[in-house]
Amino acid sequence: MNARRDRLVLAGVTLLAVASSLPPLSTLLMRLMLTQMLVQIPLIFLAAASWSVHIRWPETRWIQWNAQGAPGLLFSAIVLTFWMTPIALDHAAADSLWETGKIASVLAAGISAGISWRLGSGVAHAFYVGNMVWMTVTAGMLYQESTERLCNAYLWNDQAITGQALVGVSVVLGVTWMLELAGSNVRLLPQKRSAIPSGRGGGTRPPRF
Amino acid sequence: MTRTLIATLAVLTAGVLAFAGLTRGFTVLTAESARRRAVADAPIRIPELVGIDQQGKRRRVFDTADHCVVIVDFIYTRCTSLCSALGSSYQQLQSAIEAQHLEHAIRLVTVSFDPEHDTPAIIQEYGARLHANPDLWTILTPIDPDAMRRSLNVYGVVAIPAPDGQFIHNAAFHIIDRYGRLARIIDITQPNAALLAARRLNGAP
């Protein structure tokens, strides 16, 4: 029953992510900084990450290039940070080529995060989540603090609200990860279904950390 | 492990390069400051923009025949904040140009980006209110909205319509050299710097 629910959630997120990357919804979401940063980008990222967790990637030699998922997680963190800077958001809002590049890179960042998260140990996860929380808080503070508009495409109060929302999201991200660390059922990313036995703690699944 | 290290370094290098490209070598964080730097590094040719001035005459924003450096700003007359600051800066610039006898070297041009409301009659009234000397300071309302949009794009001016006929917009002194190229963008808080840059572009020491 949980597998069915997960499939439904995945389908829903995917549908929303596809819709938010294409007009008319993308045009609507790009009108506000808040919806570009906190709806469109996260949806695309989450859909890509969820898919790459579910797909059974062939365990080939390329994994040697991505031990602990380190370069993959680093790539994902860099891409997400890139799209938090006011200049990149402004370019995406003004230029459809930039917007296409944004969607493609966030998609790649999500896939990369999904693959690499499973390969990573607690240290890799701590690096990734810590980095994302830190960057999101910093961006959020910058947007709240600034007395001038940082994006020509967006209004000042939109910017301030986005700043508050970014800090809120980073708190949720941090708390979720801590709950996961503490062993609760909360997960930052869905676990691969087939690898999870029905009872917790049993089976042949490698330890998470 | 070595392979992972190589991959990590490659990703890191690519990331640093991408950020350096985005921020013009880690010097800018906003599109506005990036634009100012880009223009100062390599002046860009501006598209032709024709409008009706405060005397009801057709004029171009820039005309090679004038042999003048032009300081351009973009406003709308109903504006109550940024544009009034720009208006008084332009009055100061006008006095400075007259005092330094630079009338034949530097021209001032104010362009409305709200031609729908800012008709020639309103432009005339606006010019009179600011005591603009028409020989020196041209106030224009563009004729062709498409040409206006193209121009705003090149100058890097973004005007977002807001309620009650207001706009949220960025503002600056845009300095056009004698060859019709946008050569400097200077912050509206620095009219003296704008005048100095205009004099330099005109060959004055």
Mean pLDDT of chain B: 91
Most strands sheet of chain B: 8 strands, mixed
Uncertain regions spanning at least 5 consecutive residues of chain A: 193-209
The number of helical segments of chain B is 6
Task: Please give the radius of gyration of chain B in angstroms.
Answer: 20 Å
Q: Assign an overall shape of chain A.
A: globular
Structural class of chain B: alpha+beta
CATH superfamily of the largest domain in chain B: Glutaredoxin
The helix/strand order of chain B is: HHEEEEHEHEHEEEEH
The total count of strands of chain B amounts to 10
Q: What is the arithmetic mean of pLDDT of chain A? A: 85
Largest sheet of chain A: none
Number of helices of chain A: 8
* Rg measurement of chain A, Å: 18 Å
Share in β-strands of chain A: under 5%
- Tell me the number of strands of chain A: 0
Q: What is the H/E string of chain A? A: HHHHHHHH
What count of structural domains of chain A?
A: 1
Taken together, the total number of domains of chain B comes to 2
Q: CATH architecture of the largest domain in chain B, please?
A: 3-Layer(aba) Sandwich
For this entry, give a set of tags.
heterodimer, A: mainly alpha, 8 helices, globular, B: 205 residues, alpha+beta, Glutaredoxin, eight-stranded mixed beta sheet, 10 strands
